[in-house]
Specification:
With about 300 residues, this protein is α/β, with parallel strands linked by helices. About 40% of the residues lie in helices and about 20% in strands. The protein has helices at about 20-30, 85-90, 110, 155-160, 175-195, 205-225, 230-245, 250-260, 270-280, 285-295, 300-305; strands at about 10-15, 35, 45-50, 50-55, 60, 70-75, 100, 120-135, 140-150, 170. Strands 1, 2, 3, 4, 5, 6, 7, 8, 9 and 10 form a 10-stranded mixed sheet that branches. Strand 7 (about 100), helix 3 (about 110) and strand 8 (about 120-135) form a beta-alpha-beta unit. Helix 9 (about 270-280) packs antiparallel against helix 10 (about 285-295). The protein starts with 9 loop residues before the first strand and ends with a helix. Residues about 1-5 have low confidence and may be disordered. The structure holds NADP nicotinamide-adenine-dinucleotide phosphate. Pfam families: ApbA, ApbA_C. It comes from Methylobacterium aquaticum. This is 2-dehydropantoate 2-reductase. Belongs to the ketopantoate reductase family.
């Protein structure tokens, strides 16, 4: 593991979607040396948030051969694309590099670990931030700027990296509970918005609230079998927060379905169902959602011809 007292600020962000683009913009604004490592090249990174529209003068690189070892690597691909970042890991990661996997779901560090040298520090991070990539290089921030990482030297160094940005970084002693609490929300809001093609206001429908409550009851049983400490109050808080949302906030799975991109369901609802199987817990509602999201992730009628 890298020396946690080392002051370092060069950052590579792998993935230029909503999260990667927004984090790159936040770090660039406080003077960090940021490289955006992209799959699909674009001309300009433009971020729109409550303060207006801003072009971010960030270095954009599409070829892993054009970069070298760096202090921080932030992985912001969808969970299912983590392995495809391996060519970037090969050139960006040196012995003192810290890798932070910023994704929804659980097991973030475990997903990246097989693709990295054994001695490299890998930190999981949960992000609370509603951002939408409206076109390549065009990012709209809808709200929230917070991340959680496990407590410890690397977590503290990560918090220092974001000093001066709008991001509040919380360092958590019980990261398992934090990750499952976020999954409690994502296993509901992501598939329901993506399957109904509605934004979060769909949760004002009482029938959707009932479905969400049933899904969350199952997730809580599985989460606690995995070592988390969740209760029905966590589910109530999630539902209350959705009912308060009146604007145009959606979910990353909704944005992906609208854009015809693959969905992340296998690492959200799929993670719940897989853990349920390990513990022998029945999760019929989550199984039904997993089947529907899997079918919706295909090409629809065009692909059925
Ligand atoms: N968006 C949100 O509001 C939000 C909120 C909280 C958490 N999250 C989570 O944060 C993670 C990232 O979500 P997101 O919304 O930012 O996803 P996204 O908009 O789909 O962005 C993912 C980016 O990763 C890029 N990518 C994929 N494989 C790559 C590779 N091998 N090399 C370089 N770039 C690669 C994609 O490239 P292309 O441009 O070619 O597609 C895309 O730009 C997900 O786990 C999501 O669940 C998202």
């Amino acid at each position: 593991m890298a020396d946690s007292t080392r002051q370092a600020g060069s950052v590579a962000v792998i993935g230029s979607g909503g999260i990667g683009g927004y984090l790159a913009g936040a770090l660039e604004r406080v003077g960090r040396d940021v490289t955006l490592c992209v799959r699909t090249p674009f001309d300009r990174l433009v971020i729109t948030d409550a303060s207006g529209e801003r072009e971010v003068p960030v270095r954009v690189v599409a070829d892993p051969a054009k970069v070298g070892p760096i202090d921080w690597v932030l992985v912001t691909t969808k969970a299912q694309d983590t392995a495809s970042a391996e060519p970037w890991f090969r050139t960006l990661v040196g012995p003192t590099t810290r890798v932070v996997v910023i994704q929804n779901g659980v097991g973030q560090a475990e997903r990246a670990r097989p693709h990295l040298p054994a001695e490299v520090a890998v930190l999981p991070a949960i992000i609370y931030c509603s951002v939408e990539r409206t076109a390549p290089g065009r990012i709209t921030h809808h709200g929230a700027t917070r991340m959680s990482v496990p407590a410890g030297g690397d977590g503290a160094a990560f918090a220092a990296l974001f000093a001066g940005t709008p991001f509040e970084i919380t360092q958590e002693a019980d990261f398992v509970t934090v990750a499952w609490r976020k999954l409690l929300s994502n296993a509901v809001v992501n598939p329901i918005t993506a399957l109904t093609l509605r934004r979060i206001v769909v949760f004002n429908d009482p029938a959707i609230q009932d479905l969400a409550r049933g899904l969350m009851d199952e997730v809580i049983r599985v989460a606690n079998a995995e070592g988390a400490r969740l209760t029905g109050e966590d589910a109530t808080r999630v539902l209350d927060s959705y009912r308060r949302i009146s604007g145009d906030g959606g979910s990353s799975m909704l944005y992906d379905r609208l854009a015809g991109r693959p969905l992340e369901h296998a690492h959200l609802t799929g993670a719940v169902v897989a853990a349920a199987e390990r513990h022998g817990i029945a999760v019929p509602l989550n199984r039904a959602i997993l089947a529907l999201a899997g079918a919706a992730s295909g090409q629809g009628l065009a692909g059925d011809r």
